[in-house]
Here is the input.
Amino acid sequence: FIKIDVEGAEAYAWAGMQGVIRKAGTNLAILMEVNTARMGAAAAKALYTEMQAEFPVLREIDDHGKIQTITIDTLMEPNNNQDHMV
Here is the structure.
């Protein structure tokens, strides 16, 4: 299990952990706080696409502790300036 909360540097963390992801395979869970507005739309879209290539079903933990599926489109919604735990 890896938790990432790096305030806009998620793409750098993701890039740096590719070896860990490959080695761990299906035995890995990653919880990453993301904020599309903080990353910028283009960087966020690229990151979410890479994440989904590794983990086809993206999920988030909502403010009430519920785990639910989330889509890239939802993460990319205009004016979505909130943190998501994906």
Remarks:
- The chain has a mean pLDDT of 92.
- The chain is about 40% helix and 20% strand.
- The longest helix spans residues 41-54.
- The two ends are 13 Å apart (CA to CA).
